[in-house]
Amino acid sequence: MATISKFKTLTQAKDSFSQADYKNALEKFAFVLENYPNSKEAYNGVILSEMAMSGEGGAEALFDYYEILKEEDQEAADTIMGDILQNMDGTLEKLGQIFAEPIRDRIELEDGILYQDFKNIIKDGEGFKETFENIMFSTKVIITEKADFIDFLDNLIEHDYTDMALTYLENALGVYPSDTSLRKLLKKLAKAK
Prior knowledge:
elongated; two-stranded parallel ribbon; mainly alpha
């Protein structure tokens, strides 16, 4: 099935990223991912390259952090970076655009439920708290848009999941320190505690 040298292409992709040639890095990471769909390193590389291309601050720092983590433990580094990137807004949507596949097809590979579907369950009669408690131990909520992320955090605060909301907010503010919507939620959370 795979006819490319995974490690050679990943090395080329990382070199391109380090030289700020994000478009080439993205293409090479994506090429590896097409041939090795389970490559977490390629998956993370695609997201970091896309972030850097769209001018999102912090992509270079995250890439450097990822490289340092990989020196100690590749598997742990992949997991840590995957968690960081997954909590950032829009990553699954961006991947869907890169590969020109419907986002639902990509999400089926993940073990989770789209936030829009989660909201539809709530509209059908279940409350936020009951729905969230029913799914939180068996699956994860996948958020692909910033507005949904803000709404999710607001609901966590409203329904007394303050520690969880604080964790998400700290991670998000670490990447987007000047975001006004996140700062408003932080103030709301401070009042709720």
